């Protein structure tokens, strides 16, 4: 297939997806909220990483990610039970409204430089609701897009959401460098701005969809009290794990993505330390924040290209082969662009890893949507979310143990690159064998997945 035909085919599917009014509205809800996520998380992280009043080391940074990501990740599969029994429109709206309210006292704590347990608890709730919100959107997508367009839909939704998050981060960085000060007060004002975006997202979601329009379907939704649901949580979660394991192709993809995130955690920590120290050249905290903004821009371009390339490539060669290529290419890219430890070349490594991360996420999300029954989707997406975040935190801790304070270590970088190549070598036969045996992959018109053998 020539490049011209690929572009024409992709343009056709893009137009078809964008004609779906429900999809356009769901993406709008996501984009608005994720700009708020960028402002909130950027303000929160900036007050720790780039505040001249405080400089955290590698282990402190890893601990911060663990505190913010792991609590929800550990209960994520249990939360999935509620995604399968509560109206997802209500989940989207209520999660955003609660976040809009809670962001304000958190911003006040940041303003005061007060890192009390109460501020940490509130931040945990906001981050947890964000994961709940995104898992609900993923589970709702098959209700607004036809099955054969899910690859393209996931590509657009995930990438535009990530770009919106980067826009929020970038806007916060611009405000810090031009209008506000690099201090607790400046970062507090950036974080507080997220409340407006969460509120607008909630209002758009409520106005755009009917109560049952985003699922779960009435025949699949369980009734009964919350206490009954809590009593059934463990059993339902085990059922969700068994359902995912039975869909072997999706399960292998979840494992491949978790391995990618484990190694990505090491790279992320190394990049943060490098851009803050080695590549900062004494320009101060605001200059350090600016170098990180450049890295976010490079990553955003990588994600944008992944959203454009992944659908036609998976239709051509299949999702399993594409994931294998992305894993191997990440290993090569990390070694080629990262090993010289040059700030411009390292942006190339950021570009490659984010392109691969987005491409793998698109294929994984699509596989979960295709292979898993609607009554289990909330649970399997929460299980995937748990693996996604836990692997990142584990990788950051590994990096904190192995990396020096400035993040520069050739042996660690070589080990990470080798890890990606080995992950590709391990996934290729597993994913490919299952795809051939069950006749289930994203290759074919529209990227549709054939039903797996039961």
Describe what you observe in this structure:
The protein has 454 residues and is mainly alpha-helical. It has one domain: Growth Hormone, Chain: A, CATH 1.20.1250. The chain is 80% helix and 0% strand. The longest helix has 34 residues, at 284-317. It is globular, with a radius of gyration of 21 Å.
The tally of helices reads 15
Q: What would you call the structural class? A: mainly alpha
Q: Please tell me the total number of domains.
A: 1
Nearest-integer average pLDDT = 83
Shape: globular
Helix content estimate: over 70%
The secondary-structure element order is HHHHHHHHHHHHHHH
Q: Which sheet architecture does the biggest sheet show?
A: none
Strand content: under 5%
Spatial extent as radius of gyration: 21 Å
Cα-to-Cα separation, first versus last residue: 33 Å
The CATH homologous superfamily is called MFS general substrate transporter like domains
CATH architecture heading: Up-down Bundle
CATH class term: Mainly Alpha
CATH fold call: Growth Hormone, Chain: A
Q: What is the number of beta strands? A: 0
What ranges have pLDDT less than 50 throughout 5 or more consecutive residues? 445-454
